[in-house]
Design brief:
mainly alpha, 3 domains, 9 strands, two-stranded antiparallel ribbon, 53% helix, 6% strand
């Protein structure tokens, strides 16, 4: 083969793979067979298709081990298409795609928090959806939004990125895939989304580089490890695009993901571009009223009033040693300010809820109210105490629940030095009668 013929052959190969002259010049430093394999791996119909099926460059080399490199470009391409056909069957695609998703796919990952932390993350599915008035991944899923996936770690083979390009709306055109193969890939992603709630990915242990927050719960603490979701940032950024935001702050690139964030996450720009808005005016009453309607009533005891009751117990220990009528009358007098405060706070909550329903009805959808008032299904789903605070109608069950709640709060109350009221069993029996009697008077 003359030098001119060889040049024409190489030029046809270069165009075959869509390489620039500079990239191709670097390839020519290798032997001819290596060059051919590299070119076919970069070709969308060969390497691109094989990546989407979960294949590696080594798989291509094995499939093309006996390929005659003396073929011209078109013949070479047809021979390669036939050679990889067994590697892109539906069964192989399903198996390999599931393995790649398990290895790389996640919504919340460790890398944006600390780029040197061990890879790991959390993948969410439709079962993670949650009905709540807050903006978060779970509530967006419950409302039909699809959060873009990111990666637990960088896939140097490019297979995971190729699969994501297929899942996107224009993915089939990008990868030049037959419709059957593209549908198999999309179905694998969809199947995981449909059957998953919260799934941990490589988080058997928490890397010490990750920040942890200890949050009080019951008698101890629960440790939380905050993770970031670049895909959630991308989704929110798309939804608020065009909304006017403050112009007095200019933050182009928030330092997230280390020196090379493109190696640690896919949606780099979304998480590095913070969204800044004017802080809205907080209406505490509206927030607390919505909290009752979406959840339940929570009882709060005034610390100063509990302290007064503690001081009375310390000054009159004899009256609390046995359950007598005289002792209950004195204790009733000592507890009255505390119970009055609780009842007054619940009545204030009821008035705030009524005001919310009449003046801010746009904050409540049809699942809460009809034209005539509260929906019966909504009220029946609430516990007696919460139902009483919403409607203002106090039934016997509501009073009994309130007495139990107050007693539990007194039992669990902690002062500054971790001191408690040290209530014994006889105290519980007596206080149940005392608190119930006060509530009967006040309600």
């Amino acid at each position: 083969m003359t030098q001119e013929q060889l040049k024409e052959k190489y030029e046809a190969w270069r165009k075959l793979a869509g390489l620039s002259s500079r990239d191709y010049f670097n390839l020519l430093r290798k032997d001819e067979k290596t060059v051919v394999m590299k070119l076919l791996w970069k070709h969308p119909d060969i390497g691109g298709r094989l990546k989407c099926a979960g294949g590696r460059e080594a798989d291509l080399a094995e499939a093309l081990a006996g390929l005659d490199t003396r073929l011209d470009a078109d013949e070479l391409l047809e021979a390669a298409r036939a050679a990889i056909q067994p590697l892109v069957s539906k069964e192989i695609i399903e198996t390999r795609v599931n393995q790649i998703i398990t290895e790389y796919a996640a919504h919340f990952t460790t890398k944006p928090v600390h780029s040197n932390a061990a890879e790991g993350g959390v993948r969410l599915g439709k079962l993670a959806g949650m009905d709540s008035p807050y903006l978060c991944a779970a509530t967006l899923i419950a409302n039909g939004f699809e959060i873009p996936l990111d990666q637990t770690k960088n896939d140097n083979t490019g297979r995971y990125q190729a699969l994501l390009s297929v899942v996107q709306s224009d993915g089939q055109a990008k990868a030049n895939l037959p419709e059957e193969e593209a549908a198999t890939i999309r179905m694998a992603f969809q199947r995981i989304q449909e059957t998953t709630g919260y799934e941990l990915c490589h988080l058997d242990r928490v890397d010490p580089r990750l920040r942890q927050i200890a949050v009080p719960r019951d008698e101890g603490y629960v440790v939380l490890t905050p993770l970031a979701s670049p895909g959630l940032c991308k989704l929110i950024a798309e939804q608020v695009e065009g909304i006017e935001r403050p112009s007095w702050v200019n933050v182009d690139n928030f330092p997230v993901g280390g020196a090379n964030p493109q190696n640690t996450m896919i949606h780099t720009q979304a998480i590095r571009s913070p969204l800044l808005f004017e802080v809205p005016t907080v209406d505490r009453e509206i927030r607390e009223s919505l909290g009752v309607l979406h959840g339940k009533v929570r009882i709060r005891l005034e610390r100063d009033l509990v302290r007064l009751y503690r001081d009375w117990r310390q000054k009159h220990p004899g009256w609390t040693e046995e359950d007598t009528l005289r002792g209950r009358q004195l204790e009733k007098r000592a507890l009255r300010p505390l119970i009055v405060q609780v009842v007054a706070s619940l009545r204030a909550k009821h008035e705030a809820i009524c005001e919310l329903a009449t003046e801010h009805g746009d904050l409540l959808d049809d699942s809460f109210r009809t034209g005539d008032g509260w929906r019966l299904e909504f009220l029946n789903a609430k516990d007696p105490l919460t139902r009483a605070v919403i409607t203002g109608v106090w039934e016997i069950e509501a009073g009994g629940q309130l007495a139990t709640e107050i007693l539990n709060r007194l039992n669990d109350f902690r002062f500054g030095n971790d001191e408690t009221l040290a209530l014994a069993d006889i105290d519980h029996q007596r206080l149940t009668k005392v608190i119930s009697g006060l509530l009967e008077e006040l309600l």
